[in-house]
């Protein structure tokens, strides 16, 4: 594979970027930063029927040097109350770690994150406290998530 | 593995060093096989052949199966014949389907890693027919190999496919360097997945040691010369158990800050206060001229007060006596109670550490001896090298005894104070052993030097031979007793039916003592051989031998000098 830096971006990244811009996935926008074409500003709309409905969540995504052999690095910038997302915005998602495959793409990653918002998984927690809250009193936890969405994720 | 015959490796039923298997005392032995890289590769190849023949799968698939089942042919067979489909799914062995793939007929394909479109022949796919270009494969394999041994169970890069990527594909696409790493992991998996095989912990050593089921002793000697406990991987520590060793090592690291001073290699001469460096292994120190004061390295007491000649007990192993000999008088000692536990620890630690440095020194000497000195000695004393094996035997005995003695101090530290009887017996045996060892080492170091530095052959060389060989076998017996007693947990041991001791320290090495020793071992570092027999010479006996501790007492004495046993019992 070609060595890659900003000026010499691998064809794969160029193609992925073009496609993300020309055919965006519903509820997701991703655009590369002008200074660094490996750095993407991402917006994800809170899915319907989830505690995050109505929220607009800002994320950052970075493609490391060895992408696509290594997974992209993704992080929530908007505060979110979710058992698989910690207070630094780091996400617990298998395809971002050991289940990464070079045949996956930025699009698949973002769709998986969107799905994670619809289906929080408190059994594989990253934020212990939130996961505990979710398991002991889901109604209350969901209410808190809605509250946070209203406070931090509306009206960017 | 379990079911693979290992005809090619020699099985070393090595005894753990110096304990010869007397007819009357079969020493427990560690049974083990030392595996070189080649041995391991051969075994792997053999296992693969086995699976390949029985299951009619490819060799690559056999390798995938064996890696999953930890290189056990029988486990592969059992699982396969119980539920082949399940095994295939678990390890990713997808069966080639006759149906064509989606790309059939296409001349060009897109690689879904780099998004390039390339001629089909430049693309590679596992049996699942997920095609990727060669450079992406190489990158994928490179990433996996550099991630660690997980590369041995590599799967297809397609995100929802779990087809295994086997050895042949990996090696055909990996760079030279990556292929080497992969081979390394492959080799290591045989040892690391196998509970009966462990790597020798010596730095840089590439041998592995397989313990043969039924072996109750863990001390093994690697082909690199490193002796270690197969169970806990610490250096060999027989007769002390692994738990005690672990506790002791932990304790040492906790105390190490307090102990720094002990590690200093010099002490002031008790008489003239000049610093004296310990450069020989034995505890008998001589200050440099003009002082020439002879003293004991451990207690700094005059050497003349040591040993049997004064009728006194050889005291340096004994904590109680060391305290009495020490600077504290009774009142002062009470005030120092708070310091007592450190003091006690210090006592044992110092002796443990001193014996270790003596062991290291003796081992270096032994290597030097075998490399060059034995030639010198042969030339100087006009003796064929083949007749000089007794010197190396003596040094090897010293090395082994220092190792045992060292660990007995860890043992002693944890012996309960309440068990006075055991404690006495232990200290008695340890004292005997230590005393014998001091004499042996002194003879092996100092007497040998005389012969090495001599201008020509000395007439008393044969006396030296007799003395050193005699001391070697006597010391071996003391240590056998010590090891056996400790391994029995000092439960009422009846002393080993060891050959009678026919003389005092003066007597040993004199012409009264003949040693017949068949030197059968060619093993370095092991003084094993057949039982040593000592028979009294022609003279009238000057000593009676204590039935309990084997000490040779003057005919005039009615009780044993050593253990107060009444004569005749
Ligand atoms: Zn596949
Ligand atoms: Zn490619
Ligand atoms: Zn080794
Ligand atoms: Zn051990
Ligand atoms: Zn002096
Ligand atoms: Zn002493
Ligand atoms: Zn006695």
TrEMBL record, chain A:
<protein>
    <recommendedName>
        <fullName>UBC core domain-containing protein</fullName>
    </recommendedName>
</protein>
<keyword id="KW-0547">Nucleotide-binding</keyword>
<dbReference type="InterPro" id="IPR016135">
    <property type="entry name" value="UBQ-conjugating_enzyme/RWD"/>
</dbReference>
<comment type="similarity">
    <text>Belongs to the ubiquitin-conjugating enzyme family.</text>
</comment>
<keyword id="KW-0808">Transferase</keyword>
<dbReference type="GO" id="GO:0005524">
    <property type="term" value="F:ATP binding"/>
</dbReference>
<dbReference type="InterPro" id="IPR000608">
    <property type="entry name" value="UBC"/>
</dbReference>
<feature type="active site" description="Glycyl thioester intermediate">
    <location>
        <position position="92"/>
    </location>
</feature>
<feature type="domain" description="UBC core">
    <location>
        <begin position="8"/>
        <end position="154"/>
    </location>
</feature>
<dbReference type="Pfam" id="PF00179">
    <property type="entry name" value="UQ_con"/>
</dbReference>
<dbReference type="InterPro" id="IPR023313">
    <property type="entry name" value="UBQ-conjugating_AS"/>
</dbReference>
<dbReference type="GO" id="GO:0016740">
    <property type="term" value="F:transferase activity"/>
</dbReference>
<keyword id="KW-0067">ATP-binding</keyword>
<keyword id="KW-0833">Ubl conjugation pathway</keyword>
Automatic annotation (TrEMBL), chain B:
<keyword id="KW-0175">Coiled coil</keyword>
<dbReference type="GO" id="GO:0061630">
    <property type="term" value="F:ubiquitin protein ligase activity"/>
</dbReference>
<keyword id="KW-0863">Zinc-finger</keyword>
<feature type="domain" description="RING-type">
    <location>
        <begin position="107"/>
        <end position="320"/>
    </location>
</feature>
<feature type="region of interest" description="Disordered">
    <location>
        <begin position="490"/>
        <end position="539"/>
    </location>
</feature>
<protein>
    <recommendedName>
        <fullName>RanBP-type and C3HC4-type zinc finger-containing protein 1</fullName>
        <ecNumber>2.3.2.31</ecNumber>
    </recommendedName>
</protein>
<dbReference type="InterPro" id="IPR002867">
    <property type="entry name" value="IBR_dom"/>
</dbReference>
<dbReference type="InterPro" id="IPR001841">
    <property type="entry name" value="Znf_RING"/>
</dbReference>
<dbReference type="Pfam" id="PF22191">
    <property type="entry name" value="IBR_1"/>
</dbReference>
<feature type="region of interest" description="Disordered">
    <location>
        <begin position="1"/>
        <end position="25"/>
    </location>
</feature>
<dbReference type="InterPro" id="IPR048962">
    <property type="entry name" value="ARIH1-like_UBL"/>
</dbReference>
<keyword id="KW-0808">Transferase</keyword>
<dbReference type="InterPro" id="IPR031127">
    <property type="entry name" value="E3_UB_ligase_RBR"/>
</dbReference>
<comment type="pathway">
    <text>Protein modification; protein ubiquitination.</text>
</comment>
<feature type="compositionally biased region" description="Low complexity">
    <location>
        <begin position="521"/>
        <end position="534"/>
    </location>
</feature>
<comment type="function">
    <text>Might act as an E3 ubiquitin-protein ligase, or as part of E3 complex, which accepts ubiquitin from specific E2 ubiquitin-conjugating enzymes and then transfers it to substrates.</text>
</comment>
<dbReference type="InterPro" id="IPR017907">
    <property type="entry name" value="Znf_RING_CS"/>
</dbReference>
<dbReference type="GO" id="GO:0008270">
    <property type="term" value="F:zinc ion binding"/>
</dbReference>
<keyword id="KW-0479">Metal-binding</keyword>
<feature type="coiled-coil region">
    <location>
        <begin position="321"/>
        <end position="380"/>
    </location>
</feature>
<dbReference type="Pfam" id="PF19422">
    <property type="entry name" value="Ariadne"/>
</dbReference>
<dbReference type="InterPro" id="IPR013083">
    <property type="entry name" value="Znf_RING/FYVE/PHD"/>
</dbReference>
